[in-house]
Amino acid sequence: MKITFLGAAGEVGRSCIMISTKSTNILLDSGIKLGAKIEYPQISDDQLRSIDGVFISHAHLDHIGFVPHIYSSGFKGNYFATKPTVDLGSVLISDYLRISNPAGVNKRGMEEMVRHAKIVEYGKEFKFRDLSIKFIPAGHILGSALIEVSDSRNRIVYTGDINLPETRLLEGAEIRNLKGDTIITESTYAARGDIFPNEKKISQQMMKSIKDTILQGGKVIVPSFAVGRAQEVLFLLDDYMNSGILPKTTIYVDGMISKALRIYRHNVIYCRKELQSKILMSDYDPFKSKNFNFVDRKSMRDKIVNDSASSIIVTTSGMLSGGPVMFYLSKLSRNPANKLLLVGYQAIGTLGRALQEGTKSININGNDMKVEMHVETHHLSAHADRPQLEHLLSKVKGLRNVFIVHGEITKSKDFRDYAAKRYNAKVPLIKEEHDI
Q1: CATH code at 199-377
Q2: The whole model's pTM is what?
Q3: What is the 8-class DSSP label of residue 263?
């Protein structure tokens, strides 16, 4: 088997890895990299024409966003994913196309993409040409999966994005029976210092910070990815508000989060068993909490920012690279009574990263403005940290080769140095090919 790295090598974004045998070529993920400009996987036309199937680990755009481009280029094969990934991916891709209007994507390509989606169930190995494929719960977002790919000689484990501990909505990744001679692992938080505090402690600190702002009459903005972090944040706020720890305050939900929340509810069988039981055995459905107020028209935003009352605004985008959060920032950033809480990964070059690192001046729509609101980071991660990644490697039976992707290059190399003590470990570059 041959592995070709077409994206997410030495970087975060545009995940795309080709696995090849003598008769078959498949892609593991097919994402884009959002930033000042959109970057695509480094896949040639000849490589595209050779693809037999596409296998998607989860619905975030850096893993699925290039799929409509592939179908618009004439691809006639199928793409495989869990049902939640297909449902969430359709919504996020539609929003991406509407906002970015990227070149090369056409209506026929979108129709072909919908027609060729094939639903995969967790844990059921199936044949694809001369390969065997299995999707395993990854614990990252709803429907996320590790993907096992094997032939008669080799078995590859591809993590996509992975999270080991359980969360309010999901069980952690299922890693008890992993087997493979090769793993391709993410490294978003793979440096030696990337050790997450206890999530309960983080949650308590975050709620105390929100409570302080509310009691002082300020507003709290929580930018979040529409899929994954937003649902965890909303459930956290709902729990603390229902228990009385947080004072009753309006929680506004803006952007694609509301659509994603409905998809989570429709696919609740993929969530934690405790959450399913809670809905079935009681009259309370946290997906439909009365604490949530959905912003369904732009005129509501003016009312929210001009209202003298405190409120919590959970909105997209998570890295402040566009979306409704930019409106709220432009109106609320100059008031020191307000607060911005960053809860997820902030990529290099994004406004979120700049604010996280302490910048006090931003430009929105050509207007320079001072940032006088408080900015805090409360890390509610959906990725494995360094100890979890070390544990992951130890659980893969028969492991020999470790390819480290989807991380800032310094973090990936740091983890490589650790892994190289026991395995053949590499941080591949874009377009590199490796035979296993």
Answers
A1: 3.40.50.10890
A2: 0.92
A3: H
